[in-house]
Amino acid sequence: MLRSSLTIESLADRPDLVDPLARLRWQEWADHSGRESLLWWIRTTQGEAGADGVPVTLVAVDAAGDVLGGMGLITVEHDELADRGPWVVGVIVRSDQRGRGIGGALMTSLTTWAADAGYARLWVNAGGRAVDFYRRCGFTITEVLRPPGRDPMTILSRAVPHGREARGR
């Protein structure tokens, strides 16, 4: 169940949240080659904290100021997919908070942001259980790529609703 005290903040407006969000990402994905260092995650998270467009990162924070999760939007995730974008990236919800609607709240806020910015479509590269999350958020699978020497990439996209529809009214 989603807490009423949850707020969604722009990382650009809350640079104090870079380190806690980077630490969440690092704890989840430090086993990825080339991304083992917490410093790599801090620098990447800082780089995704744009204030004037993409990249942008939103952060879910509780009443105590603790980071519960985050989600970003970048122009290009993989060079071979540069003909599409923007891309949803860095989606994380603290493990003890999963299943409470935080990811959905972040996606709603990010979709509203994208609508306000004039984007017509969002893209994401996902695998495993994450595919089901994105499908619940309105994404559909567009293709599955099997790049040589890499894990398969399930590519999903969704139209960005505009105006009142984007805000859930």
Automatic annotation (TrEMBL):
CDD domains per record: NAT_SF (cd04301)
MF (Gene Ontology): acetyl-CoA binding; N-acetyltransferase activity
Keyword Transferase applies: yes
Keywords: Transferase
Keyword Transferase applies: yes
Any one annotated GO CC term: cytoplasm
Domain of life: Bacteria
Occurrences of domain N-acetyltransferase (ranges): 6-161
Gene3D superfamilies to which the protein is assigned, alphabetical: 3.40.630.30
InterPro entries found in the cross-reference section: Acyl_CoA_acyltransferase, GNAT_dom, NAA80
Protein's recorded name: Acetyltransferase (GNAT) family protein
